[in-house]
Specification:
The structure holds two protein chains of two kinds.
Chain A (H helix, E strand, L loop, with lengths): L1 H38 L5 H12 L3 H23 L8 H39 L2 H7 L4 H39 L4 H11 L2 H27 L4 H32 L1
Helix pairs in contact in A: 1-6, 2-6, 3-4, 3-6, 4-6, 4-7, 4-8, 4-9, 6-8, 8-9
Chain B lengths: L2 H5 L3 E10 L2 E11 L4 E5 L6 H9 L6 E6 L2 E2 L5 H7 L3 E4 L11 H12 L4 H14 L16 H14 L4 E5 L7 H18 L2 E6 L2 H7 L2 E6 L2 E7 L9 H8 L5 H4 L2 H7 L1
Parallel strand pairs in B: 3-8, 3-9, 6-7, 7-8
Antiparallel strand pairs in B: 1-2, 1-4, 4-5, 9-10
Classes of the chains: A mainly alpha, B alpha/beta.
Amino acid sequence: MPIAFVLNFLESIGHSLYGLFASIGRIFIFALKAVSHILMPPFFARITLKQFMDIGFYSLPVVGMTALFTGMVLALQSYTGFTRFNAENAIASVVVLSITRELAPVLAGLMVAGRVGAAIAAEIGTMRVTEQIDALVTLSVNPFKYLIVPRIVAGTLMLPVLVLIGDIIGIMGGYLVSVHALDFSVGSYLKQTYEVLESADVISGLVKAAVFGFIVTLMGCYHGFNSGRGAQGVGAATTNAVVSASILILIFNYVLTQVFFS
Amino acid sequence: MSADSKNVPMIKMSNVKKSFGDKHVLRGVNLEVQKGESLVVIGGSGTGKSVLLKNILGILEPDEGTIEVDGEVTTHVRGRARVELMHKFGMLFQGAALFDSLPVWENVAFGLIHGEKMSKAQAREIAIEKIQAVGLSSMVADLFPAELSGGMQKRVGLARAIATSPQIIFFDEPTTGLDPIMADVINDLICQSVKELGATALSITHDMASARKIADKIAMIYEGEIIWCGDVKELDNSGNPYVEQFINGRADGPITKHSDYARKKTA
């Protein structure tokens, strides 16, 4: 009895590990295929442009609000912490560095995963289930080029733009709270912000954003494209797209930070 | 045209096998469709009819056997060559499979614009012609698929399938989900458009009225194999107990003895 239990336990671990590696392999092949189609014509310019609007422009409110309130709360929290060590002057640097290097890319990535990744998976999944993807094939159009490439290109290029705007709004949020609620002087707060900020901070954040944009759209496309049957299949695809994108963003955020700043 | 090219079948499947895991869907299908002929494959649900079509289209790849289209082996053609090959095909899907993000005319013109690189204005003209050819008013052109009834969606799907004047047209259960009158209207449209194009047609259905109307020849698929193939006139004298049970829609017979139906009863 105990031996059977242990064997069962080991078997289930082995089974999940096997499944995990199989999925990683499939996603990797899918990504390679997508990238190769990005490089080879024909291109669908008008459809890609529409994705730029859907993924980039319409994500602005969400990313902007996230950045604004994150900057504001960051100023408040670091104030309560830093006054205990008489280090209030460090608030500006904390705000500007955390926003540009860490919070704007990661939070924007997670918000876009929820907004865009879910929408992509649901749309492509529904197209799979209703045979619209097969219909593309019979009309001599490669579904990778028509559906997947425009979304991945738009995600990878637009997320850095969103994050750059998020950087500005986030820093502004911290500034507003510091100057209007915490009675900092405008001049010294701005001076500190300028002094501490280096272009490497911003650029590393934007590189992260591009990677996160790729991850979010890739996961949305992959799970939608391989969606199971029926409403349940599409629902599962959507959930998987958001969860896997979020987890991958957090993992890659650590890896990239290690690479940039070690 | 040389003498032997006349006899080359438009579609030829030899010993095609396809399995999903341990589920053997096609177990050695042999099928020939001659040029200009309309062949209808009949068979129960889950007997591999759709898988058969998808193998010819290259959406699925057979595990074994060969598929020839117009004398050319296409079993494992992929990538750009496959895209080129698809110019020969048109397909009407079971649920019409219209692109719901595009208006009706762009659905019909899709193959012309993206497959054949035609200008939008010209493609729209042809699309509206085709929309009228399937009995819809040109007013429909600017509506979206979600605004249409099931019968209208099928008509638009048919217009899309014939828009590029393909040599081969597939019909996947063209009458499923339609009322009997609309089903007959679609059958008439299928006969008419296939004749006008001089195309080769391959249909799958379990609607016998539809099969009798659109077929020149009928093949029956059962447990992943073609068990009978013959002229539509011979259908009632096939001498095959499986075919007889199917076309008469009887609950008792060889099919129900050892198949899904029986298993479902005991389950």
